[in-house]
Amino acid sequence: MNSLLKISPLMDASTAAQPQGFALKLMELLVIPTFVLDAAGRVIIWNRACERLTGVPAAELLGTSGHWCAFYAMQRPTLADLVIAGRTGEILDLYDGQARDPGGTRDKLCAENWCEMPRTTGRRYLAADASPIYDSDGLLVAVVETLRDLTEEKQAQIALEQLATRDGLTGLANRRCFDHTLLAEWQRALRQAQPLSLLMVDVDNFKQYNDAYGHVGGDDCLKRIATALASEMRANDLVARYGGEEFAVILPNQSLKGAAIVAERIRCRVEALRQPNRGAPARFVTVSIGAATAIASHEQQPAQLVATADAALYRAKHMGRNRISLPGT
Ligand SMILES: Nc1nc2c(ncn2[C@@H]2O[C@H](COP(=O)(O)OP(=O)(O)OP(=O)(O)O)[C@@H](O)[C@H]2O)c(=O)[nH]1
Hints:
The chain is 40% helix and 22% strand. By secondary structure, the protein is α+β, with helices and mostly antiparallel strands. It folds into two domains: 5-155, Beta-Lactamase (2-Layer Sandwich); 166-325, Alpha-Beta Plaits (2-Layer Sandwich). Strand 4 and strand 5 form a beta hairpin. The radius of gyration is 29 Å and the shape is elongated. The protein starts with 12 loop residues before the first helix and ends with a strand. Guanosine-5'-triphosphate (GTP) is lined by residues 169, 202-207, 210, 215, 218-219, 222, 244-245, 317, 321.
């Protein structure tokens, strides 16, 4: 017995003879965006709320399998298509958040993802529920997909996540995000037996900079250095503001030799900014960098990698600043 048939007490004598026809008509009027596919994947209902959400009129889609183009720029299955094709396993590849059979109803699927919505003004984050309808012999006759527009909620969640993980001044990852990422990368390095490198980057003579140009000038300087650092990173690297005028760079799968090359590139990049620091002996803003690399092991902690890079940074400062230092140098 499918869920549509359960509404039969609401029907009068004439509609009771065609309960599915009645229910499908009812769906047309629902304020929840809803579409229904038949067992061959053709659109048999595209309700008005769905028209409003997608900007695609029902007349264009009824009887066709072109409903994907209301949501996506490239052809791909909707949740309802996955149910019809029995390809529910693909939900993991195609959707962000998913919960199979959330209410214990056979084959009902829920999932969320960003949709391009080519016929509207911009992409939307939609939550979809797809429920199959079976006839009395247990054969699939249709799949109902209902949609909820969660764009505002998702954007608020992303903004909150940004606030929780970004440094307010520079826009780089904050210390909390650094700690979290370092631990995650350490565990990954442990699983894959890959090296993990870390750079600690500290602005030289920054007290003099603040004294000469004021705290607001100092803030601007930190922002410029942050941009320079970020421009040197690859996709899997993470650059974070570690605290004050100190930055940290996590370099996954990077040997000490590779880390030294990145460190020297960063040092040169900051030097090339030619940012005057009239209070400092070098007359320009420079950075000192300590590098460290570990092959992660259960005996060690990521904090030891930080301590080793910090010790190298201390040596770079001690040796005269505007230089990089590796463990043991
Ligand atoms: N403008 C600004 N200054 C900051 C910020 N965070 C830390 N500082 C300043 O950075 C300076 C760091 O000074 P020190 O720790 O003495 O280091 P330094 O002068 O850079 O000297 P070395 O590191 O030894 O080269 C202090 O004056 C802090 O007030 C910030 O967010 N904005």
